[in-house]
Design a protein that fits this description.
Length: 172
């Protein structure tokens, strides 16, 4: 059975529910974040009102070391930051120890590569609609152009120019 919630945490959750009218799911997530904070503070024998930035940094590192995702750590730190901001507004703490503490960066997914057919279709579409489509896609368009006016001798092929190289490919 978890220990009873700290009185400041209980009052802050009541404030969030009644005055800020947060959704039940948000209150549940904040409650979990405050339970973590209280657990860390109890384990370190630090009263919540006396926590300092180095404590918060250590506890955030422990969350990261325990395998919590960077976004979950960011949400936890946001909840803690709000608690200490509220405590400061009530005159119960002099400074917010969570200010300036950042969550670890989330990994950026690698861009997906276009298949050859999709790339050819995109470049062909660029010839029809102009370069805004290609520019909006984030693709690099410098040095690549299709020249439909040049005949390849084969009615089913067209010549594609890319910088100094030229090759023949099937017409669509």
């Amino acid at each position: 059975m978890p220990p009873p919630r700290d009185a400041d945490i209980a009052r802050h959750l009541q404030h969030l529910a009644v005055e800020r009218r947060l959704a039940a799911r948000t209150l549940s997530l904040y409650g979990e974040a405050f339970d973590r904070l209280q657990h860390f503070a109890d384990a370190a024998a630090v009263p919540l009102r006396q926590a300092e930035m180095h404590h918060i940094r250590r506890w955030a590192a422990q969350l990261h070391g325990a395998g919590l995702a960077p976004r979950s750590i960011a949400l936890t730190l946001s909840a803690w930051r709000g608690l200490y901001r509220w405590l400061g507004g009530e005159g119960l703490v002099a400074a917010n120890p969570v200010e300036g503490v950042r969550a670890p960066r989330a990994a950026q997914p690698l861009p997906k590569a276009l298949s050859v057919d999709d790339a050819v279709a995109l470049v062909a579409h660029r010839d029809d609609a102009g370069s805004p489509v290609l520019a909006a896609s984030g693709a690099r368009s410098t040095g690549t152009r299709l020249n439909n006016s040049q005949q390849t001798g084969d009615p089913h092929l067209r010549r594609v120019h890319c910088r100094s190289r030229s090759r023949r490919q099937p017409k669509r």
